[in-house]
Amino acid sequence: MINSPNIPKLVVLFAVAVLGQVLVFNNLHLFGFVNPYFYIVFILTLPFGTGRLPLMLWSFGLGLLIDLFCSTPGMNAAACTLIGFVRPYLIEATASTDDLQHDDLPTMGLMGPEWYLRYMLVLVLAHHLLLFVVEQFDAFHFWPMLLRILTSSLATMLTILLAQLFLNSPKSWRD
Amino acid sequence: MRHFFYFIISHITVLIFLLLELVCFVLIVNYNDYHKASFFNTSNAVSGAMLDAKMSVVDYFSLGDANRRLVAENARLRTRLAHYTHIIDRDTTGLNIPLTGAKYIFRGARVINSSVSKSRNYITLDAGADDGIRADMAVVGHKGVVGLVMAVSDHYSTVIPLVNTNFHLSARISRTNFFGSLEWDGMSPQYSTLNEIPEHADVAVGDSVVTSGFSDFFPQGMLIGFVSKVEQDANEGFYMLEVRLAEDFSRLYYVSVVENTQADEQIQIENSTYND
Predict the structure, then answer these.
(1) Coil, strand or helix: which one is B227?
(2) What is the share, in percent, of chain B residues with pLDDT greater than 70?
């Protein structure tokens, strides 16, 4: 990962993910309760070759950084650590790892829409499920929570798909 | 022993995963007691400065709206001022209303961050200890009660608003003086619930709900909202009243922080009595 040609791309993605989340998406209260968590696009897009441990630590750190801006210590970090932990297993189970370059980024352009949508759906749902359950722990209303999880997941996935448009130049970033 | 090390090394990822999650949950659990949360919140310097910078951009787009509301509030206050000046001028008893030693002092502050979509929402203000803000001061908006100051740094403070499931406030039906506890259910930021109003109370849709004055921090009689639905609590003999909140929490720009200059005295005398 250190020598990856994608470093500049990942640095920009990290900045866009954090700033976009804190400055834009956290202030976007669609219908009062839909809040996209766009920033996890960074965890989804780290190169295939990222070690399990670094991946988890990046996820934890990113979550903690977002927590700092949301006054929700530990909540985003817990959800991010979970998907950072799950991601390698998910990729092993769904993609033939032999074909993948160490530096390749899991994007829709590279992996195709079918694989990417499934990959994104699992990680986004896992993240939102843990985040919302933890967040509502002492005021547990099942149906409103389910509604929030589903609508926010949908919103998050839309933003991540939008980001694919910019990550999606399969040629340019391999040159 | 070798077995043990072998176990550790072969499961290092899982173990560190569990360790990180444990760290997260310790943070979360500690934070539930919102008075403890003095460090890890948006009033800390770094994120405070960043949110401040954000608002200086966003401000341009909301200036028109904010100005309109400030003008409307000014007009309202001027009307009241004129009314009271009129009363004082007519006061021939010689009893002057003292202007010094006011019990409540209002300070203006700008909202630089807020959320309404979570179940525990918080607000960040651009005024802190240097501006005379302290923890536990009441916060009110143009239309009604907003919340309570939770933590302060030198230049920023965080507020726990009515739309946070951890926040309970003693409230009173203005018309009939029955009081109960206002608690938010974590759903719509426009509505809250007033519990513990006894069933024999006279309650009607449209009644205004105000602060009870039992709180050490809120002036009494400040508008919270209006009763919008009256429901019987199935088994307890109490009403569950839906209250439409007067303040619009998704459009907060400027608020006032209220200092009760006699709060310490009140708490002191209460403690010395109740602890016996």
Answers:
(1) strand
(2) 83
